[in-house]
Amino acid sequence: MTAALYARRKSWPLESVTVRLRHYRIHAQDCANCETKEGMLDRIDVWTDFEGPLTKEQRSRLREIVERCPVHRTLESEIEIRTRVP
User: Fold this and answer.
1) According to the 3-state scheme, what is the secondary structure of 36-65?
2) CATH assignment at residue 46
3) Is 90 exceeded by the pLDDT of residue 50?
4) pTM for this model (two decimals)
5) pLDDT tier for residue 58 given thresholds of 50, 70 and 90
6) How many angstroms separate the Cα of 52 from the Cα of each of 13, 25, 55, 78?
7) What pLDDT shows up at residue 17?
8) Rounded mean pLDDT of 79-84?
9) How distant, in Å, are the alpha carbons of 58, 66, 72, 79 from that of 82?
10) 18 with 52: CB under 8 angstroms?
11) Following CA atoms 78, 45, 31, 79 in sequence, which dihedral angle do they give, to the nearest 10 degrees?
12) Is residue 43 part of a domain?
């Protein structure tokens, strides 16, 4: 959604965006870039496809925008979930 809004604001010829996700759990010790080294971690692989006659530079910029969208940034951060039942 963020990429589509950005492209629309720039009047770029983006026709559609397709996002595929794969979620799985890995051992923390198998993650070279992770701070946590014990237990299990969630890993999400993301494939994003932009349809339309975009230039190479436009596609590159849209990839950057996708990685800075609010949902992406939330998923990359440490998350604390507190459930309350009235």
Assistant:
1) CCCCEEEEEEEEEEEECCCCHHHHHHHHHH
2) 3.30.300.20
3) yes
4) 0.72
5) very high
6) 6, 34, 9, 35
7) 95
8) 84
9) 40, 28, 20, 10
10) no
11) 10
12) yes
